[in-house]
Amino acid sequence: EVTLARLGKEIKRLMAEEGVSLGDVLVVTVKRPERVASALNAVGIKAKAFGGGGEDPLGMPGAGGDFVRCTTVHTSKGHESPVSFFLWPEELEGIHFMNIPGATDADYERIRRCMLYVSISRAMFIQYILGAESRFMKAIDIYHRSDIGRVPVWT
User: H helices then E strands: how many in the chain?
Assistant: First the structure.
């Protein structure tokens, strides 16, 4: 997948050119972070998935380990990292997989907004967004225009 190839290439560049360590990188997805960890491990970047089918989220360390932390939006709450990637924000459209009894479309929209905010507020210094053009990418662009820092938005 193009997004995963770009992710791996950028993490390698950050390590080589900017001195970023693996433990300083957090990758957030809506679901299935193990697909990201597998892709990174396949290109020689040590990574572990937590939550959403990965390891127990309670065991996810803070920044500074010897691997890239890949996790779900829910597991990322309370975690910050010098460098954070949010992959595939368009997957927020499909959160009905959560199957919340009695939830209305308005309830799911509020949940999407909260998940979006959590996803794009994990970075201490550098935030990357990788995904398809969507209404979420437009919202992220507006949010980051009001924020300080480098924010590459790749589609």
Answer: 5, 6
0.85 exceeded by the pTM? no
11 or 148: which leads in pLDDT? 11
Q: Using CA atoms, how far apart are residues 115 and 97, in angstroms rounded to an integer?
A: 14
94 DSSP 8-state letter: G
- The rounded distance, in Å, linking the Cα atoms of 107 and 149 is 32
Q: Return the SS3 of 153.
A: strand
Sheet of strand 81-87, all strands in order from the earlier edge strand to the far edge: 47-50, 68-72, 25-29, 81-87, 123-130, 153-154
Tokens at 47, concatenated: 């990574």
Segment 122-134, tens digit of pLDDT: 878 888 888 767 7
